TrEMBL record:
This is DUF3750 domain-containing protein. InterPro entries: DUF3750. Residues 1-23 form the signal peptide. Keywords: Signal.
Amino acid sequence: MIRRVVARLFLAFTLCFLLPMTAATIWWTTVDRPGSWRAADWASAGVLPAADTVSEATIHVMAARTGGLKGAASVHSWLVWKPADATTWTRAEVVGWGNPVRRDAYAPDARWYSNAPYFVGSITGRAAAALIPRIEATVDAYPFGFRGAYVIWPGPNSNTFVAHVLREVPAIGIALPPHAVGKDYIGDGLRAHLDAGGDLHLSAWGYAGLSFGPRRGMEINLLGQTFGIDILQPALKLPGIGRVGT
């Protein structure tokens, strides 16, 4: 009986985690990428219009594959916003050197280690205008924003920061992709957090956990990777690969 249970758990781990990560790693080895951060392209990818051509308030959650071998497993995410009629974008993110929280350290749509960014989700109009002050306040109050707080794995890292803002301002209604390693770190020890949007997060030091609710769907988090199902916007969430579906 015990042997059968162990065999089924191993099969589930292989199908849900090991195979997707293996596929992502094989694909990543075929991608042309810079040998170091000095050789990487950090310039604008041109995916955002100039801020002065967008009249309405706008919020974007953006992400791009990170550098080196980490790129097979994870993306780096950040927030971009502008109030109505503002002539510049504001970019907020966390980095692994110096003071973690940075504003406008790069172009709002800059490549990350030469990897082009994409839109995880966006909000525009009155809804965005109402949320921008809350986002700015949450960024300023980020609990892991002090020098030395950054931990690449399991967190708190760049994805921990964006996930924190999305949890604290759930009306944004956006969830990070499954391969945003660090998004499930909510603190050391055994933790449980029910955010105002109705998502419940359970975590064991950020190494393993569960998340379920209207934004997250149902997720199993293991060693920074996520396997899950999005019910409201039907999709599979696969480790190293991302969303497969809508």
